[in-house]
Amino acid sequence: MNAEMAETESKKENEQQSEEVKAPEQPEQSASDSSDKSETKDESKTAAPNSAAVNNLRVLENIEVRLTVEVGNTEIKIKDLLRLNEGSVVELDRLAGEPLDILANGTKIAKGEVVMVGERFGIRFTEVADPEEMVQNL
Description:
By secondary structure, the protein is of the alpha+beta class. The chain has helices spanning 2-22, 31-45, 52-61, 78-82, 131-136; strands at 67-70, 100-104, 107-117, 120-128. It has a domain at 67-85 and 94-136: SpoA-like (Surface presentation of antigens (SPOA)).
């Protein structure tokens, strides 16, 4: 079966190469036509629907991540933790009204505010972290 797949792949590559060779080049026409061609060239630089990059992203689309909203945090001694009971209040490091951190698998990806969605809590993204920063924080 692997031999059949390899043969099919080589046939597809040969067909693509022959199509590229057969495509005649058209001479440039007016300035407006050349701008249309540059737009077409720019479009060809984007990932084609069946390209490897798009297929790789499609694989990643189905991976589940844990989205967490962090209200705040604090450090507390164990003796104080053991004394907590119903009605106890622990002060957090976050000010009231300050945007909350939104984490994906423990990595900060955005800030947001709490909203009501029907009878449930939701989070509205107000600021999304720069992708380069997210990668550095991994």
